[in-house]
Amino acid sequence: MPNRLIELAIEALESKKAAIDAEIAQLRVELRPARSRRPARARRVGKKSRISAAGRKALSERMTARWAEWREERAKTAARKPARRAKTKPKRRAKPAEGKKS
């Protein structure tokens, strides 16, 4: 008789397991990213330029002039100041070994 009870318990647990497995499978389907269910949109090949060619050229000329001015200023200040060596830490010299006192 106890064997029959164990068999019935196993059958009940297996049926619950099957129901739980079905629920897990359904949840996994719902968990998948939404983009896999929707059709993919066409991707843009390149970014659209927001500045015209004339605007780009004008900006390039302004920046070239700005950097040229910066280089001139830098050359003037560099001509006034002598070049310096980088500061380095003095190297430690090994102390001469003295005889041990006993």
Count of individual beta strands: 0
In DSSP terms (H or I, runs of 4 or more residues), the helix count works out at 2
Let me know the average pLDDT. 81
Give the CA-based shape: flat
Strand content: under 5%
Radius of gyration: 40 Å
Q: By helix and strand content, what is the structural category?
A: mainly alpha
The quaternary structure here is single chain
User: N- to C-terminal separation?
Assistant: 93 Å
Q: What summary fits the major beta sheet?
A: none
Q: What's the helix-strand series?
A: HH
Poorly predicted regions: none
**Helical residues, percent:** 55-70%
Mind sketching the topology for me?
Blueprint lengths: L1 H30 L21 H28 L22
Overview of this protein structure:
The protein is mostly helical and 102 residues long. The protein is built from two helices and no strands. The longest helix is centred in the first third of the chain and has 30 residues, at 2-31. It is flat and about 105 Å long.
